Amino acid sequence: MAETRRSADGSQTLERGLEVLLTLADNRSGMTATEVSAALHMHRSIAYRLLVSLQRTGFADRDEVGRYRVGRRLLSVAERSRPQLQDAAEPVLRGLAAELDATASLVEVTGDAAIATVVAEPPTDGPRFSYRLGNRDPVDRGAGGLAALASVAPATGEPERVGQIRAAGYVWTHSEVVPGAYGVAAPIAARGKIAPASVNVVSNRPDVVERAIPLVVEAAKEISRRLDAAVPAAEVRR
After folding, report:
1. Residue-wise pLDDT tens for the chain (238 aa)?
2. Where are the domains of the chain?
3. Which residues have a Cβ under 8 Å from the Cβ of 97 and sit 6 or more positions away?
4. Burial of 116 (0-12, 13-18, 19+ CB in 10 A)
5. Contacts with 204 (C-beta within 8 Å, 6 or more apart), sequence order
């Protein structure tokens, strides 16, 4: 009866396909059909058919050894539909990445994940810690997610650490998500922004992170200024 009701309310195949797509997004090294099947507790033949459909429509790519990854079409859809915050952040992040010679990103919180929704790589080709577009980290670990939580009004029961970040205006971390990685992030506070967000820089060099602190704080403020200038006060009140 429950299965019948679910089918009547929506498409079970579509829901499963979206679950597969999200699972691929969480596994940057790619997954085989068998691994997807095990992760989602579905029969391998079903997982394989869904992966083939995603590949056929461009939402997944398959490499020569049979591992699937998120396809370029999904990134294209995300690019066309991205909100004002990401448009405001992109040029600021490009300048920040060039000045630091390090990867800079916009991190937004969705559910219990901190997701990199804009990533800017520096123009040089030197070795660096790279941060993939769509990267998902736990929201309560790592500089990006913690700073994003501090970008909105205090919430009942929030970790004491978030309040400290809100007061300081930035946070830096070491090895909280990736061993050996340093992160520094600053909250983005703006009238027109609803979702928690932050500017984030990750590096394997502590000197880069130390130099990045005032630059990351200023980048977050600049994005806030751009958002505030783009959103009329009357619209915010409404």
Report:
1. 444 444 445 578 888 988 998 898 877 678 999 999 999 999 999 999 999 999 999 889 999 899 998 887 776 665 554 458 888 999 999 999 999 999 999 999 887 789 899 999 988 776 667 677 888 888 888 999 999 999 988 888 888 899 999 999 999 999 888 888 899 999 998 765 667 899 999 988 889 989 999 999 999 999 999 888 875 543 444 4
2. 2-74, 82-237
3. 103, 104, 120, 121, 122
4. buried
5. 128, 129, 180, 181, 182
Q: The tokens of 44 are what?
A: 């391998």
CATH topology for the 82-237 domain: Beta-Lactamase (3.30.450)
Q: Which of 103, 123, 113, 108 is nearest to 183 (CA)?
A: 103
The domain 2-74: what is its CATH number?
1.10.10.10
**Is it true that 2-74 and 82-237 share their CATH fold?**
no
